[in-house]
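Ticket #4471: complex job returned nothing on first submit. Input attached below:
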Amino acid sequence: DSGVTQTPKHLITATGQRVTLRCSPRSGDLSVYWYQQSLDQGLQFLIQYYNGEERAKGNILERFSAQQFPDLHSELNLSSLELGDSALYFCASSPRTGTEAFFGQGTRLTVV
Amino acid sequence: GEDVEQSLFLSVREGDSSVINCTYTDSSSTYLYWYKQEPGAGLQLLTYIFSNMDMKQDQRLTVLLNKKDKHLSLRIADTQTGDSAIYFCAETFNNAGNMLTFGGGTRLMVKP
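Support reply: We reran it on our side without changes. The output follows.
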């Protein structure tokens, strides 16, 4: 158990819908990262937050957004969902930049 | 741009050593990581190495880093059936916090 909690574990939704994925980082970790794992793109970095502020952006679509709350949990919002958004979404946390990141178990999103 | 490459598949017999290889392109990498992903599970951090080190050993795991050739390897001694999984190498860069760039993963199959 990495200490990073993601909910829900599985999510099935229809095209055009909006979903929210939730992540609770390890106790004391200030950084939260979101990654997408798909068969065609592999593991791709989406976005990073550090202590409530956006720190880095990767290959995140405009239809996707994230935020980190004062209690340090984070949410990833995916809207206008398309079939191609079906993937495993991982959250990771680390205590500060430049050190190891610990991953949650992921949320498997299926868009039908 | 940054790119991390791994061979797709490796098959070994139980008790043998496994060597999983990875090449990366960006010489400004600061940390290099190995993660393990078992079927239906998240990413488990196995080990990492600072870019100013050549080797790191942790129980059955040995990481070798050849900075000149930008080559990273993970050796698993006395490979067990429980080591069957997908292994990802990943790197971070000086100016990108702890954003990880992953290779495509190597599927290790251990035959009894």
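Chain B touches chain A at residues 30-31, 33, 35, 41-45, 48, 88, 90, 92, 96-105 (CB under 8 Å). Closing as resolved unless it happens again.
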